[in-house]
Amino acid sequence: MQMSDWTEMSAVELGQGIGKGEIDPVALAQAFLDKIAVHPLGSRIYARVTPERALAEAEAARDRAAAGQRRSPLDGVPVSWKDLFDTAGVATEAGSKLLEGRVPDADAPVLQTATAMGLVCLGKTHMSELAFSGLGLNPVTATPPSVNDPEAVAGGSSSGAATSVAFGLAAAAIGSDTGGSVRIPSCWNDLVGLKTSSGRISLDGVVPLAKGFDTVGPLCRTVEDAAQTFAALEGRKGPDLRGASLVGKRFARLTTIVLDDLRPEPARAHAEALDKLAAAGAEIVDLDVPEIGIPMADAGVLYTAEAWAEWGETIEADPEVMFAPIRERFEAGRQFSGADYLRAWERMMAARDVYYAASAGFDAVLCPTAPNLPPKIDKLMEQGEYYVTENLLTLRNTRVGNVMGTCTLTLPTGVPSCGLSIMCPPMQEDRLLRLGAAAERALA
């Protein structure tokens, strides 16, 4: 293997190379740092690079490998972190001037765990401001482009996380997902993205948006990478994906809301993906659950009320430093009372009961990850109403997983910027990843 090839390999392949003594972790980290430094999009993807930390962690990984004491399959593999995970002594600003100069004293616990498992921190990636947009447009800091269209957004809010992997500037990335922020950028950059269950991974030291929905998850090249990265975030051994098959599996094709107004490419990609799964032995049955429309209609209450409660005072102290469309999303939350929020939450929990009863006979539920393709940056900047409507459409399908409380995996379909989502009940990530591994082979 040549160094020039390392930045295009999967995280698991790199880990295997380290384990065999074929890849030096220090040289590997330096290869990524060098590529970031010279890449024309490096500064639009990374908010801050941490070379001293990366090389020190890589040296420790090299020593462990030499002693036969590697801590995980990804020990020594370089990854990026979304700029809302606290990093000791390094600014964590969540893509916002409101947090400019904010330097935490300690790493977030999830970063501490990943570091203990041997992951090497390359730096912090750009994101939508305070994580409150699915588009990834951020004129305040930087807007990474989609890997498939340099004039289009990358998806958000984990925009830099996705592009760091898609452009070969990290082997894997860690992001967060509140309404689709891992899945949308993964989808639009042809990656695998895992939305974990609420409460599965600690949110301590993670800049919040809406704590009732915030989750942490990986963005990766392959399902195997996602499984091993997810395991590293939890400090445990990864799930066994060997022998995963779709034969005899029964999937529900959700028809409520998620198939409305699909653009031509996502519609074609979804139909072709389902055909491939069926050809691999899966049974696919349509499923309509009208009750999920109630919390989807309440999403404006649920999300903006939490977000305004979290950030309202900070925003009111300096509103002009924010990108106006995102500030306005936050401000929409101040119209709702505590009673409004609690009633919406109760309706959501009732809808979850109906959804899980209706889907109980299936191995998983399927839907298109995004109903649209990445919008053009210029058009989003020039047309305020287009920004609003396209952002809401972008997040519509992924938000189903958040309001229903699922764990969800998005996979590339082979059609650029079009993904297939597989949803399972909460806390079933390992089973979901086995299904994903089988589906990944079928879609390939």
From TrEMBL:
Residues 29-433 form the Amidase domain. Transmembrane segments: none annotated. Gene3D superfamilies: Amidase signature (AS) domain (3.90.1300.10). Its EC number is 6.3.5.6, 6.3.5.7. Keywords: Ligase, Transferase. PROSITE patterns: AMIDASES (PS00571). InterPro entries: Amidase (IPR000120), Amidase_CS (IPR020556), Amidase_dom (IPR023631), AS_sf (IPR036928). GO terms for molecular function: asparaginyl-tRNA synthase (glutamine-hydrolyzing) activity; glutaminyl-tRNA synthase (glutamine-hydrolyzing) activity; transferase activity. This is Aspartyl-tRNA(Asn)/glutamyl-tRNA(Gln) amidotransferase subunit A.
